[in-house]
Design brief:
Structural class: alpha/beta
Helix content: 40-55%
Keywords: Glycosidase, Hydrolase
Pfam families: Cellulase
CATH topology: TIM Barrel
Radius of gyration: 22 Å
Organism: Geodermatophilus maliterrae
Strand order of the largest sheet: 5-4-3-2-1-9-8-7-6
Family: Belongs to the glycosyl hydrolase 5 (cellulase A) family.
Strand content: 5-15%
Mean pLDDT: 93
CATH superfamily: Glycosidases
Order of helices and strands: HEHEHHEHEHEEHEHEHEHH
Number of domains: 1
Protein name: Cellulase family glycosylhydrolase
Length: 353
Amino acid sequence: MLAVALTAVVVLAAVTLWAGRRQTEAAEPPLPTVGVQFHGLWESYNDDERAIVLDRLVEAGAKWVRIDLSWAMLQPESGETYSEWGTGLADRVIGMAAERGLQVLATFWLTPGWANGGAGERTAPTDPEDYGAAAAWAADHFGTRVAAWEIWNEPNDPQFFAGADPGTYVSLLRASYRAIKEAEPGATVVFGGTAYNDSEWIEQAYGAGAGDHFDVMATHAYQAFSDTEPEAPDDGTKWRLTHVPAVRELMARNGDADKAIWFTEFGWSSHAQNGPDVAHYERGVTPEQQADYLARTLHLLADRYPFVTHVFWYRERDSDRGSVHIDNYGLLDRDLQPKPVWHRLQQELREQR
């Protein structure tokens, strides 16, 4: 009888230990939702390649794609007409994503010449209401095929938004938020992802009246020394991924503590260019480091910054556009074969499930 009792105690202890471990595992914080930048509207793609890439993203476990959608492509001639070719291409590509169950974040940017006197696609329109009207049309046209609309790309960077003026940007945000919500009330409107965690510029945008005109804040959380590991401590500047709490604190001070932050771009480029003569923002990492840094970022956000709910890896595939650094961020190589970072993403998301 004593032996039976002792056995029962041992079994009970083992079951308790197992249950405790299961509870610990279950208590691990969830990873952020993962999306991927998909340049599917670029002329370098054909439909066969688009299909392969989208299938690969689904296989990896991605839930979203971020597609850069050009206003100038949709409405090249005037504010009264829309291009059959441009809208047809966008319909086809967005449809391919939707058919695979991928939610679409559309980054709506690039001004047609008629709207700003030919000042260039990256210059704001003369009348923000023209942008708002086009955004409303797009939200109505694509409907639920586009779940979220990002208002411009990196508006704090003059390379992407001429002048990078917060007030000018907020005029677009105000016009488009109202218009999109009227056309498609269920759509999420995303603040244009800033280059880096630029809390100072975002503060100026709040000062210009941004607060009531977006549902989600967004940043592009790259490391300015582009081979830096994701956990590198905040140095008080926008150049670190770990500066994102400063953005969160700014939002809270402006009454937006309940809004999420999305990283609508982040990533590391896999290449060997990282010597002393290489610019700090063009340093590469090994393919293995690229994969490791992706996984570490997901867990860092889950553990320390759960208010970052969605992240979009930049980008879907490597390219050959001429910059070694920009060309090698992909989850897939140029031949659309998975890189180590793709395999690591799939592993992390499978384990999460």
